[in-house]
Amino acid sequence: MILMTELDQARQEINRINQQLVKLLEQRFTAVTKVNNYKVAHQLPILDQQREQAILNKVTAETSDPAKAPFIAAIFKDIMKQSRQYEQALRKED
Ligand SMILES: O=C(O)C(=O)C[C@]1(C(=O)O)C=C[C@@H](O)C=C1
């Protein structure tokens, strides 16, 4: 059998994590669709700055390694930016 290097093993681990992230992100976008439906029905804007700040605070508090916290927070900022664009796209559909 071909020897699996540490690099291959670490990349396999990343592939498995990516698979999980894709599933979770799809679930998150499905939840965002529900939030968007509610907000459209109640004529609420896409952006909720307070909610975004609350999420960033919670995510930062839940990160156990402080060295990783700012990078994880940056990812969540981008996730929410993409969610807003997704909501925009949904609103343009109908
Ligand atoms: O909770 C909402 O109101 C959403 O639209 C979802 C979400 C998010 O991705 O978590 C996206 C946009 C808002 O600015 C706040 C949060």
Automatic annotation (TrEMBL):
Entry-linked PANTHER family: CHORISMATE MUTASE
GO biological process: chorismate metabolic process; salicylic acid biosynthetic process
Region forming the signal peptide: none
Keyword Membrane annotated: no
Gene3D superfamilies: Chorismate mutase (1.20.59.10)
Name of the featured protein: Chorismate mutase domain-containing protein
Organism of this sequence: Limosilactobacillus frumenti DSM 13145
Domain Chorismate mutase: 1-91
NCBIfam families per record: CM_mono_grmpos
GO MF term list: chorismate mutase activity
UniProt keywords, alphabetically: Isomerase
UniProt keyword Ion transport present: no
